[in-house]
Structure formats: C-alpha cells, structure tokens
Amino acid sequence: MFGMQRPNSISLLQMKRCKVNGCRHSYAHVTSAHICGDCGEKGHGRMECKSEEKKMALQPFLQDRLPAWGECKIEGCVDKDTHVTRCHPCNLCGNVCGREVCDICNSKTCPLCRVQSVVDPSYTVFTSSSCVVCMEEKTLCIFRRCRHACVCADCLLNMD
After folding, report:
1. Cα dihedral: 44, 74, 103, 34 (round 10)
2. Is there a single domain that holds both residue 22 and residue 73?
3. Is 114 left (phi over 0), alpha (psi -120 to 50) or beta?
4. By three-state DSSP, how is residue 12 classified?
5. Which of 7, 19, 68, 135 could cysteine-pair with 11, CB 3.0–4.6 Å?
6. Whether residue 34 has pLDDT greater than 80
7. Residue 123, SS3?
C-alpha cells in the first residue's frame, strides 16, 4: 500500500472526494465537509438544498474520509480527515483560509495611525523602543499594512 506517501495520479482519481453536484473544489474536501451556499449546512450544495431526494442521494457519501496523506495538517484540526490543509476553516470565523486564524480575524488597529492591519505574532522585531500601550515592555510586533512596530506581545493579545 501507499502508507503516507503521495500516490500516483490514478490513485488521486480514486480518492474520496466531494460528490455534491457542481462542487468546484471536489478534491479538496469530502461530501460531509461541503457547505451549502444557500442554507450554510454541511453535506449538500445549492443544487441539492431544496430537494430532500437529492440530499438523500448524497447520504452514502457522508461517511467518506480523506486518506492520511491528504488530510489537513493544521495542528489541532478536529475534522482533519474531511478536508485538505488549503481548505481549513478559520478557527474564529469559519471562513475557509487554510490557516488557524484568517487575516480578517487576525487584524488589529494600529495605536499610532489607527489603520486596520494584520499582525502576525510569530513575526517579531527587537527594538529598544517601549510599547506605546503599556510603556513598559519592548516592542516586538509589526502591523503589516502601516509597518509600525509599536506594541509588545502582551498588549497585542489584549487589543480588540
């Protein structure tokens, strides 16, 4: 068998995939992870939404799971066997972004210029400047859009 190795293209065609009619990303998730664009429920799409008969036709595929080599690699993902990493939903808002937290949820307002910007706490700088919020700790975090490095990690976590 393949184990954790990536199989050849013939095996990719046989892989479990979304069976929802018209799904544009059928090889990125299984049927149970498909979110309907009309009602927001999982397991069917817009074309099946108003038809119980069409929803019932998808029932046999709701137990499908991706093979281990194709599942989501985001640490702590509870449904990792239903989607690939690039289709991981944001842990805060649920939008598909391929990361634990999307840029929208990870954005903060810079205390210097008041511009809304994404801040990645893992991307840090070391300066001799003090945090403009607590005035005690050294600044570490950079606001991507305005490029200000003006807050410490603790104050960043407490910002709205």
Report:
1. 0
2. yes
3. left
4. helix
5. 7
6. yes
7. strand
Residue ranges making up the domain that contains 67: 9-87
**Are both 29 and 60 inside the same structural domain?**
yes
Residues 60 and 31 in one domain: yes
Residue 146: which residues within 8 A CB-CB, separation 6 or more? 110, 112, 113, 115, 117
2 pLDDT more than 70:
no
Distance CA 97, CA 114 (A): 25
Q: What is the pTM of this model?
A: 0.60
Contact at 8 Å (CB) between 87 and 99? no
Closest CA to 142 of 118, 114, 116: 118
The torsion angles phi and psi of 149, rounded to 5 degrees, stand at -115, 90
Number of domains in the chain: 2
Question: Percent of the chain beyond pLDDT 70?
Answer: 89
> What confidence category does residue 13 fall into, taking pLDDT thresholds of 50, 70 and 90?
very low
Confidence of residue 121 (pLDDT cuts 50, 70, 90): low
